[in-house]
Amino acid sequence: MYRTAYLLLLLTTIFWAGNAVAAKFAVGHVSPMVLNTSRWGIALVILSALGWRRFAVDWPEVRRRALYLLLLGAAGFSLFNVALYSAVLYTSAINASIEQAGIPMLIIIANFLLFGQRASMAQIVGFLVSFVGVAITASHGDPRRLLALDLNFGDLLMLGAITAYAGYTVALRFRPQIHWQSLMIALAAGGFLASLPFTAVEIASQNAIMPDSRGLAVIAYAAIFPSMLAQMFYIRGIEFIGGNRAGLFVNLVPVFGTLMSVFLLGEDLHLYHGVALALVLGGIWLAERSSRRKAAA
C-alpha cells in the first residue's frame, strides 16, 4: 500500500511540475484563463465519456452532495490555478515557489485545528527539511536572495492559492462514497464552471489569446496529465496515507519543475539542484518512516 501511494504521489508531483514548464511554453500561444478553462473542459468531456455509466449509478448521491462537490472542484481544480496564474504577473517566481511549499504546513494546521489530528515531531522536522530544499531551489542556491524578497499583491494571491488547495485537500475527507470516476467528473465540472467567469473577464478585457498549434499541445498535456491523472493519483494517495503525509509530497513540485526546466528548456544544471532534491526526499523519508512505524505500532 505504501509503495503504491508513494508511486502515485511521485507521479502526481512530476505531472504538476510539468504543468509549470508547459505554462512557460504557453506564453504568447494561449492566455492563462483560456488555458485553464480549456484544460478542465477537455478533462470533463473525457472523464464523462469514460465514466458516465458509473456516474449514472452514483447520481443520487452526487445530486445529494452536488454543492459540496462543485465547491470542492472549484477550489482545488480551478481557483488554485487562477490565483497562481494571476500571482506571477505581480510577484517573482522565487516568491511563488516558496509560498507553494506552505501547502503541507497549512494542511497540518487545518487538520489539527478542525479535527484534532496531531502531526508527529518527525513529520514537522521532515517538513522543515523539505522546505529548506525548496528554498534552496527557489533561491538558486544562494539563501541571501531570500532576504531580498519583495512581498506584494501577487504574494497575497499566492496565499489565496495555497489556502484553496490546502482546504481542498482537507475537505476531501468528507467526499461521498462514490466511484472515483464519478468523483472526478463532479470535481472537473466544478473546476470548469468556476473557470468560466475568469475567462469571460479575460476576453472582455481583450487579453485573451486563442491557442495556436503550440497552445493546443500545451492544453492537451494540461488536460490529460496535471488535470486528470495527477488529480486522480493525489486523491488515491490521500486515501492510502492521509492528507498530512500526502501533502508533504507537494514540496517536490518546485524541485522537479526546476529539473525539467534544465532538461526541457535548456536552463543550467547546478549542484544545488541535487542538494535540494536530496533534502526534499530526505524530509519526506524522515516523516514517512516515523508515520509507518507509528501505524505499525
From TrEMBL:
Membrane-traversing stretches: 38-55, 67-88, 94-114, 121-141, 153-171, 183-204, 216-234, 246-265, 271-287
Q: Which residues form the signal peptide?
A: 1-22
Q: How does it sit in the membrane?
A: Multi-pass membrane protein
Is Transmembrane one of the keywords? yes
Q: Which UniProt keywords apply?
A: Cell membrane, Membrane, Signal, Transmembrane, Transmembrane helix
Name the PANTHER family on file: INNER MEMBRANE PROTEIN YTFF, OS03G0707200 PROTEIN-RELATED
**Protein's name according to its UniProt entry:** DMT family transporter
Q: What's the source species for this entry?
A: Mesorhizobium marinum
**The organism's taxonomic lineage, starting at the top:** Bacteria, Pseudomonadati, Pseudomonadota, Alphaproteobacteria, Hyphomicrobiales
